[in-house]
Amino acid sequence: MSDSQRLGEFDLIRRFFVRDTPAGTARRDGYGGDDPAAGIALGQGDDCALLEPTPGWQLAVSVDTSLADVHFPAGAPAEAIGHRALAVNLSDLAAMGARPRWYVLALTLPDIDPEWLTGFARGLHALADRSGIRLVGGDVTRGPLSITITVHGEVPRQRALRRDGAGVDELIAVTGPLGGAHGGLQAWQAGARDPADPLLVDFLWPEPALAAGEALRDLATSAIDISDGLVADLAHVCRASGVGARLEVERLPLAAGLGERLGEAQAQQAALTGGDDYVLLCTLPESVRDRAQARLAEVGSHLAIIGRTVGEPGIHGVPPGRVGWQHFDVEVDDHPETGAAP
């Protein structure tokens, strides 16, 4: 009898997802506390987990579903799939300036492949350990490959970063390079499989900007993680805040190797619209610029100023073309020099 025939749902959960956190495991970049189990009154194994949030902090909760060949290539390494599924959820916590605490996993599998599950769990657990987040429950069922993760984080009461706080004449900035994930997707589709390819790393192994989010929490007026694309996500902030934006596209920080791979024009387009970069986009007053840059440098990040908010609605300074994944229409000035109608 094969492993896949022997393993039932509960055996699978126990084998791959129930684990003791090593003693002394600390949150990456010094996130509070050396005990990832803190706050867990009852973890895996019952109908619900029982959790105790830190007094004076608010819970930040987010859920994302990742589907094979929609959000990630089904043929990607299982370890990368596990990492990526958790990373995109942690990125939402980063955008709010929240500390990761707990997560639950709902995994749908077409069949039970112990080798695949070993790699998936390795990628998932490695990022969880570095980020200080603990798996407290979940579910496994049979069907087309799908991964749904709900993350729980904490942020000091009334101090979360939000999308609706930007004001007019503030700086627009990002915390890392843009366009790499789009370049990596194109490389994957063209047959590239070199695990050291920096663009493939950007695509398959995104790193949530958790430390940057906490560093910006008392300085930025608004923030969002770049998942749909710079222009589309900036539009979300502008709508929520009631402002417009003027970008300086020549100042966009491009991912390493992107220009050489795609050419200058396509690299800039990837930076504007590609999505899946999972760096933070934020607004902040000019008066805190130096402090923000110093704080980010302390946590190994960077703040690149790419524009300024304006009173006129819309996103200005963007060349004609796609604007990213659009959940809503994005108003873009296709004539950045004059603003004239076509």
Structure in words:
Residues 45-155 form the PurM-like N-terminal domain. It is an enzyme of class 2 (transferase). It comes from Kushneria sinocarnis. The protein is of the alpha+beta class. It folds into two domains: 3-156, PurM-like, N-terminal domain (60s Ribosomal Protein L30, Chain: A); 171-316, Alpha-Beta Complex (Phosphoribosyl-aminoimidazole Synthetase, Chain A, domain 2), CATH 3.90.650.10. It has helices at 3-6, 9-16, 78-95, 114-131, 180-189, 198-204, 210-216, 230-241, 258-262, 264-273, 289-298, and strands at 40-42, 50-51, 57-67, 99-109, 134-142, 146-156, 171-174, 222-225, 244-247, 280-284, 304-310, 315-316. It has a six-stranded mixed beta sheet. A four-stranded mixed beta sheet has the order 3-6-4-5. Strand 4 (99-109), helix 4 (114-131) and strand 5 (134-142) form a beta-alpha-beta unit. Helix 5 (180-189) packs across helix 6. It is globular and about 55 Å long. The chain starts with a helix and ends in a 26-residue tail after the last strand.
CATH homology superfamily name of the largest domain: PurM-like, N-terminal domain
Question: What series of H and E elements makes up the topology?
Answer: HHEEEHEHEEEHHHEHEHHEHEE
Instruction: State the end-to-end distance.
Output: 69 Å
Number of domains: 2
The CATH architecture name of the largest domain reads 2-Layer Sandwich
* CATH topology label of the largest domain: 60s Ribosomal Protein L30, Chain: A
